[in-house]
């Protein structure tokens, strides 16, 4: 462990994280920005879903019970927001050599989920050669090296190499909302987030949730007056008592989510953040970047992170699948760009509404297809009960094509649901 990270300072309220009753203020600004600007969402889809036990890209994974893929859920949201905002939204999809053909074919077969083809741009990130612990490259067949995507931090160079910045300039797009494909609750083009980003003139604004005890996520910390993200394994956080830090900081107790004051459309007023009980904020890979900052980063060199992995390799005329880690995969992380910004912010949001990642198969108890479906159901229940419906011993699923923020559900007022149902 790097000793410089053993003592860390959690991000502070108002200085770096947007807290308290400011949601309505930011929403007003965000609504104005949305009407005055062209909009863009970028989905990171280059990673391999090997832990899911699927050979297909993660976005193609069909969730049980609701029978919709992750791509379908995200596309429904973008389509619905286009109607709500009366805007055509540009969608950028970053793929890799391992996901490109299947992803594009999946969109084509599904008729681009009702979106206009000219508003969807696929582009490919680079790959890195996989190596053993002695720095020797692995082969995947007799002639070709074993390779893996170069991480979500490969985004910026991929945008440059694929001339994405020219596309953004031609469309007069000033900021991009970047999300990871595997978060089934990800909210894009959130007017509160956009308003916060615009008001503070951030280079990048990120959403966070309160980190759970022992949760395997990156956390936001301050280092040399800069916001950075460190992996949970690099910072001693679980030994801390609630609210305690290893450095002197401003107290963050009794603070609530920026979204908690919103009553129109959204349901955040029913939930307040527990920020202060756990001083560390978890990264959920939902960022708004200014296009100028992204283009600047595309000319920078980000550090390489080495992940110890089980790497299949070619030997003796066949593919060997090791049972134990046998080498490295090199990756760049998107958040390593934060150090190049003098104006970087973090906005705390309720986990129940915005974070449920699909990381694992059914063999794990967390972040698996079942937990994702359960979390969609919990958020849906909140929306429906706020609209006046009653849910009795069953699960209701509100997908984004029906409601994005919990809006337009008044027709269910007074209705009682007693069996599982995906609302139309």
UniProtKB/TrEMBL annotation:
Alphabetical keyword list: Nucleotidyltransferase, Transferase
EC id: 2.7.7.23
Composition-biased stretches (Low complexity): 247-261
Gene3D superfamilies xref list: Spore Coat Polysaccharide Biosynthesis Protein SpsA, Chain A
Top-rank lineage group of the source organism: Eukaryota
Enzyme class: transferase
Pathway: Nucleotide-sugar biosynthesis; UDP-N-acetyl-alpha-D-glucosamine biosynthesis; UDP-N-acetyl-alpha-D-glucosamine from N-acetyl-alpha-D-glucosamine 1-phosphate: step 1/1
UniProt record, GO biological process: UDP-N-acetylglucosamine biosynthetic process
UniProt-listed PANTHER family: LD24639P, UDP- GLUCOSE PYROPHOSPHORYLASE
Family assignment from sequence similarity: Belongs to the UDPGP type 1 family.
Name of this protein: UDP-N-acetylglucosamine diphosphorylase
Organism for this UniProt entry: Hamiltosporidium tvaerminnensis
